[in-house]
Give the backbone structure.
Amino acid sequence: MLKAVILIGGPQKGTRFRPLSFEVPKPLFPVAGVPMLQHHIEACAKVPGMKEIILIGFYQPNDALSRYLSSAQQEFKILVRYLQEFAPLGTGGGLYHFRDQILSGGPSAFFLMNADVCSEFPLLEMLRFHRDHGDVHCAVVLATTANRKQSLNYGCIVESQKTHEVLHFVEKPATFVSDIINCGIYLFTPEIFTHIGMVFQRNQEEKRKEDQLWSRQRAEVIHLEQDVFTSLAGQQQLYVYKTQGFWSQIKSAGSAIYASRLYLNQYLQTHPERLVSSQEGGCTVNGNVFIHPTALIDPTAVLGPNVSIGKGVCIGAGVRVRESIILHGASLQDHCCVLNSIVGWDSTIGKWARVEGTPSDPNPNDPFAKINSETLFRDGGLTPSITILGCNVNIPSEVIIRNSIVLPHKDLSRSFKNQIILCQEVPSCLFSRWNHATAPLSPTCTVCFITTTPCTFLAI
């Protein structure tokens, strides 16, 4: 018997995904036409002997999550349930806190995966690798290859070329250690809880020695990568399975478009029924495109490649959409153009308007390059990235929105470039007094908590 655990985090962990995570929990954001989490659940449901999928996080129970869990159980005919942490406990703390629930029924092993990764999920291959290496070890780590520079942003693995044992593990090293990086997908035996328990006991001992008034760290907060894997490495307990398939993190909205492209391409083999093609009397489709059956598309529209059209979307005559995600209820009026953008729920783009972003794809000339998790600001300005329209944003006709983030419920009246357009009114005189040389702090939006600089921070 097998189980799977998916770590979905919580609202404090999705800040780089704002403003999209204002409307739905990040794990439920649609990527390639289905919630991000569904790609994980589909992969788990294909594993023979899989009896239960457990989600662990610190989101408050909500209608969207409850509805999705119910529909997933019906679709995949497998028990899917959510366990809420009382506080953020790290990648190992939540696992240890709910160990009795995970071990209930006596599973021989269980998968653990982070919700914010995009992958082919070679779970069957990992299981076969685990069985081929006997039962003496307690963990298999899925890994891939990165270039030397980007490997510093991940957990780095030094392996035995002969046995594939992990000899050394370093989380985000300061200097180059290895180009083999941790993918955040694991296969554990129940013995892993013995090692996590040792860390828990050590944390408790350290906490007792400290002054309780000064101790800020909970003993229950445990990070697998730093606290467990580093000690298991070289002890014949930790092994690595390297995948040749695609893998990427989904940390920001820009990375969601890249992940959508990877999944849409995978649909050619796994779900060809989810892709549409050009048909007589229908719109022109280039490359891989997902269109929800309820969307209304004018026959003269041109879509693709890498486009996902959500439920109830209306697309008018002559519209061009490329490398974009159009969410539920959006309206794209005649002859508008949407490139490298995410159009939020119930948003409207007027006639002949242009919404365009800058793609944040990995270097196409480097086969081992990964997508960069760019900071929001660079060199005093907004980092060029995709354009994001939050929920219920109205773009008027004949304007251009480029490399900008528009927060929810805004009615724009002119063009913008490289701006964050706020969700509330702020007097323009406030910003005229700020400059880079004298401002000790940057203004912060009290609604979205995005800190920014005068050249990129606008209210309408």
